[in-house]
Amino acid sequence: MVTECFCFKRNTLPSHYKVKEYCPLVFKNMRERFNISDESYLKSLTNGDVEPIDCSSGKSNARFYASYDKRYIIKSITSEDVEGLHNILTDYHKHIVETKGNTLLPHLLSVFRLTVEDKEIYLLVMRNVFSTKYKIHIKYDIKGSSVDRAASLKEKEKDSPTLKDNDLINDGRYIKIGTEAKKIFLAKLTRDVDFLCSLKIMDYSLLIGVTDLDKSIDSTLDSKVSEENKLESDQDNLSPTEDTEDTDDDQLNVPTPPDSPSSKLTYGLFGLPSQGPKKEVYFMALIDILTHYGLKKRSANVAKTVKYGADQEISTVKPDQYAKRFLDFVNKIIQ
Known about the structure:
Helices cover 35% and strands 19% of the residues. It is α+β, with helices and mostly antiparallel strands.
């Protein structure tokens, strides 16, 4: 499908360009299951300029942008990523259907190919894990590994650095959401990780954003967002389903994960309030789910094992090993 030019801001693109949308009907169906209307989605992507985000701390050299209302993240991906996504799309769609959109997996919403003067760029649009209303003061990219899992000095010098596993450990930080909320969150996380493991996917991360409520909070959206879009933002942040997983939330005296009515209205789909002494909110979801354990990763596993030793927690391991270690680590840091 080639999208018509009027769907994009003409003043930000040259006169000779073409946009192709991949599998539009599949992604449209998934957006519906994520409770995102076509009208509000198109408005978010086209009513204002996207904003570059300096958040790529990995080796992919991917570029990130936020829609003008901060509801969606746009990531540049490679042709190999497009192929990898195509290979899992049927299973991913089935998982979204079975879970009624209630998942910690990335909410994948569109894939585009932008051709400008014979240069091609692939773009993946995803729902923002973080809230549009609350400032993120600290964020972590967690893989459950200890080898090479600390942010570089260059990364830490950024205004909003992405820290890693060893940084979280050295900070002495725990995600204190309470026993019942932890149980529900881990059940959902385990279900999603088992799904990834079944597809032989590894090297994914748990993205954690921490809002300190005692610090200054940007309680409103960007001034460019109209009151109408604020209402739409609240509606799009409702859980895709009113069902909960084996738990009657009304019977709990603690905040629950994103499918809780109180949570979804206050902190969006991925926000969980702290049950510790600090007034914090944690935004948590899985990211980077397109790495298949193929020949390239097997070779990397051998190389890192030789370099660091078989007893070291390298990130490149078989999918089942990766999943177990990942879940064990997350279980330890959540209280």
